[in-house]
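Dear colleague,

Thank you for sharing your sequence with our group. We've completed the structure prediction you requested, and as agreed, I am returning the results in plain text so they can be pasted directly into your records. Please verify that the sequence below matches your submission; if there's any discrepancy, let me know and we will rerun it promptly.
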Amino acid sequence: MFLEERRQAILELVQAEGRVAVSALSRRFGVSEVTIRADLQALADRGQLIRTHGGALPLSYGLHELSLVKRRHQQVAEKAEIGSAAADFVVDGEAIFVDSSSTALAILDHIKQRRDLTVVTNSLVVAQELLGLPNVAVVMPGGTLHHDTVSLIDANGLALLERYNIAKGFFGAHGLTLEDGLTDVSEAEANLKRPLVAMCRQVIAVLDATKWGRAGVASFAAVGDVDLVLTGSGAPPAMVSAVRDLGVDVHLV
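Please find the predicted structure tokens below.
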């Protein structure tokens, strides 16, 4: 198969399957992963697909990002259970990070009675939910407003947080895969979350069961960066076992 024929075949696979991995393409076409990466980059440079860490996505993928309003009405019961379980890990007197994901927002109702709690967040919704609680201090980094997530996004605004010892960070994600780790559909959001992951002593992923095996455009944490995953009972057993084998604690709720 000639180079352009292979690239056309790769493009058709991306459009048909919705996501392709470098390793799988390498086996399928009998060429090295280096060659496949060059193919994917060439197709991305032409504007024919979205290049991701470890693979590629169709251009239409970016159209599937849902606004926070819509996401809060999906898997509502499951997210409530995850939020309740996550709140059990929050201790009076500590600082925690809560991101702008709909699953992380489900934690808030269960922590409003905590004493001397500091909540670091880039989410305007989180800040509003905790407004007026004398026992909870809210700290927000600066940034540019991202309308879909109702959050402030700018990694340059994180310098303020260096004075805080953030005990736990609660991170939602568009998806989790063994290869890509925790991912987001927004490059800007991932760029903000990446340094925040490093700031947290304990990284807790809060994911409903639909997020397993999905990958967004940009990775913000490798599987090995995560200490605990709180997820629904419908998470795929084989993948849960594989994540546990990597030393990550997984709690099904």
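Summary note from our side: The radius of gyration is 19 Å.

Kind regards,
the structure core
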